[in-house]
């Protein structure tokens, strides 16, 4: 394991604990988002994921959706006014009122073929940040892995093996509610760091 990589078994332990109790039992306040076990699995996958820079996400994503905060971040990153960024780079999503899409896709206008990467990586939209572990957080009950992304396939294999190993090693172990809450909070911070 190289510096910066996470130990799959440590991530599996976090995931195992985080999925032992529903969020409602751990976060009784109404202002806390409620996530499903699949959501926590996605969060764990993001910890382990290593982009292999194949470009699949940048060359096949259609549409590439933007939230209002994504458009604002793009404008700030490009050092242009928001209205100019909206006019130059976005269109309204015809299927989702209030949602924006990038104008230029297939490949994404910000994909650099020569460098094999995104020119706006630090300001990439949420839809790009959560790729390739797709789903609607808080409602989806399964993790959808994009099979054309070699990094996602590898991540799921690594996490699955680590989960199986941890489950065998910790059979009969019952963490406290506090340990479960801390594991959930740790994984939730992953979303903020994407």
Automatic annotation (TrEMBL):
> What is this protein's name?
YkgJ family cysteine cluster protein
State the organism of origin.
Methanothrix soehngenii (strain ATCC 5969 / DSM 3671 / JCM 10134 / NBRC 103675 / OCM 69 / GP-6) (Methanosaeta concilii)
Q: Name one Pfam family in it.
A: CxxCxxCC
């Amino acid at each position: 394991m190289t510096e910066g990589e996470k130990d799959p078994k440590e991530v599996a332990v976090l995931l195992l604990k985080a999925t032992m109790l529903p969020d409602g039992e751990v976060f009784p306040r109404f202002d806390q988002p409620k996530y499903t076990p699949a959501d926590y699995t996605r969060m764990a996958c993001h910890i382990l994921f290593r982009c292999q820079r194949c470009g699949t996400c940048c060359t096949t994503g259609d549409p590439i959706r933007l939230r209002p905060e994504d458009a604002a971040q793009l404008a700030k990153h490009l050092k242009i006014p928001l209205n100019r960024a909206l006019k130059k780079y976005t269109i309204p999503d015809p299927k989702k009122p209030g949602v924006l899409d990038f104008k230029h896709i297939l490949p994404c206008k910000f994909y650099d073929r020569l460098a094999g990467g995104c020119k706006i990586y630090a300001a990439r939209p949420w839809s790009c940040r959560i790729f390739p572990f797709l789903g609607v957080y808080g409602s989806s009950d399964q993790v959808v892995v994009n099979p054309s992304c070699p990094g996602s396939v590898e991540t799921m294999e690594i996490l699955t093996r680590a989960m199986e190993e941890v489950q065998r090693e910790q059979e009969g172990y019952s963490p406290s509610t506090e340990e479960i809450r801390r594991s959930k909070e740790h994984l939730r911070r992953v979303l903020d760091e994407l």
